[in-house]
Amino acid sequence: MEKEMINAKRQMVSGKDGEDYERERLSDLPECILLHIMKFMNTRHAVQTCVLSKRWKDLWKRLTSFSMSYYNGRIHSYNNFLSRFLFCRDDSISLLNLDFIVFRSTARSKLLKNILEHAASHNIQQLTITTDFTLTKIPNSFVPLIFGCHSLKSLELFMSSGSTLNLPKSLLLPSLKSLHLTNVSFAASDNGCTEPFSNCKSLNTLVLQHSIHHDAQVFCISNSNLSTLKLVNIVNPTFQPKIVLSTPNLVSVTIDVSLFLSCYELASTCDLPFLEEVNIDTGALIDSSVIISWLQVLSYVKILTLSSHIKDLSSLAATKIQPPCFVRLESLKMKKVLPWNMISDDEVKTITEYLLQNSPLTCRVGVIKC
């Protein structure tokens, strides 16, 4: 009975004593577990744990990541915190993940150069850089510093609309597996063609968003390892570019078009025999014949999802434009989006009959409401 009363008293610990008890329980965890927990925190909050106890004082210095992709305070304080974090951390520990914002003052000072040099010398593997909308000019040293990080496995560059990043003709990142580029421009060769990804031998995921190819008439996505490709509003204000796929192991393709200028020709050097899924979402008015030309290239797909914005395809049923032969198609899905652009059941029937007239009869047809 006495033992039960003692246990009951322990369970009734509350208030400040209870908080201290829980904090001590947390502090008793192995260092590797504490660091793993801190990895998911905003880095400023992770550093603030140094005041909890002696055990926590220097723990943050062994963090392998820095993540502050959102900040609404004083820019000077952000830059100062980032600089102090890199200066005070344990220099023997790798910095595997770095996610930060580049403000105009960051780019003008030596801080940006110091950040990227520190990352490159500390085995950086995941790098995410977002530029503030006030940044209109990116330093010339920016690109070679980034693409000199040969340990990179994941790279995400989110350039603001006012700071388009000019990239070299070829990207040499042998370990890179995932690449996400927003508002970038690729330099073209003398023949008007650019082929930037062929030397990224490990690349399997590529996302290109709001990219502008100033002088590239033909944009070649050439990579034998690439399995996932997402194209979002590929823009050129002066001419319609041609995108050529040389990606024999491509599994998934997403084409997202919501801008009127995001129209381009699509071609492929092979049949894409391993293509599993294709998702085409056209929020802008794209000519039906353009969509059919895309589908001709992607005709080996197994699962095809189309948005209701392509309901103009139903008008092609009365023309002589032939749809592709989907030799492997197992499922065709139509997404019903936006109440004022709903597609009727009759239109769905007309479109599916048109698209599947040259394809196997075993394909499943469905409608997704979202």
From TrEMBL:
Coiled coil regions, renumbered to chain: none
Pfam families documented for this protein: F-box, LRR_At5g56370
Domain F-box: 23-69
Domain of life: Eukaryota
Gene3D superfamilies: Ribonuclease Inhibitor
Name this polypeptide is given: F-box/FBD/LRR-repeat protein
Native organism: Glycine soja
